[in-house]
Design brief:
The protein has 209 residues and is an alpha/beta fold. The strands form two sheets. It has a four-stranded mixed beta sheet with strand order 1-3-2-7, with helices on one face. It has a three-stranded mixed beta sheet with strand order 4-6-5.
């Protein structure tokens, strides 16, 4: 195996050419055609676990990767004008998705974003990068985001999550000049990170040929 992970392999007579894998709690479920030999099963389990781990890394990048990702977004969409110096996950932003401090180039992302689609995370990063240049939500600010093709889709996605989790309110993308003063109460209880109903948050599918 590519990694030490609990795997539940499920064979299906209806499945003939595809293999899929997803997380179910602390287990990985791999769905394979019933016709697979034991050797083919092991080969495809290894392959799908590797793909699923790669998908996890894209959705939940480490903080060092976040900084490089932010710099790349700045180069591609803001002509490199926004220059972040740090990007970190924080657990005390319950009513906003991101915040930044232009004075020191720091960006903070709510840990509630972890596990969301990569294009949503990129939008929030780009939003905060734009705030490093323009602190308000003015017309000039939104013009900076025009080159990102999924801006409106990402905003709709996040609004839906806010509504589903009962966290609607102003300022979930605002910057804060005094980061410790304007962040939410760290003692506030944090409930659901995202709607739990629907398909698996991360699933990878492959065709066997």
């Amino acid at each position: 195996m590519a990694a030490l992970v609990a795997v539940d392999v499920r064979r299906s007579r209806r499945r003939t050419r595809t293999v899929s894998a997803y997380r179910d709690g602390d287990r990985t479920v791999v769905l394979i055609p019933a016709r697979f030999s034991r050797a083919e099963e092991q080969e495809w389990v290894d392959r799908m676990v590797t793909r699923l781990e790669a998908a996890d890394r894209r959705r939940n990048p480490h903080e060092g990767d976040l900084l490089e990702r932010a710099r790349d977004l700045s180069r591609r969409h803001l002509d490199g004008l926004a220059r972040p110096r740090s990007v970190s996950w924080v657990d005390n932003q319950h009513h906003r998705w991101g915040s930044c401090t232009p004075a020191d180039g720091s960006i903070r992302l709510s840990s509630r974003l972890q596990g969301m689609p990569s294009w949503v995370l990129d939008y929030v990063l780009l939003h905060e990068l734009a705030h490093l240049l323009i602190p308000t939500h003015s017309r000039s600010f939104w013009q900076l985001l025009e080159s990102y093709p999924r801006t409106e889709r990402a905003r709709g996605f996040l609004a839906g999550v806010d509504h589903a989790t009962g966290r609607e309110g102003p300022g979930h993308h605002d910057r804060d000049d005094e980061p410790d003063a304007e962040l939410d109460d760290p003692d506030e209880v944090d409930g659901t990170r995202a709607p739990e109903e629907g398909p698996p948050a991360v699933e990878v599918i492959a065709t066997t040929g």
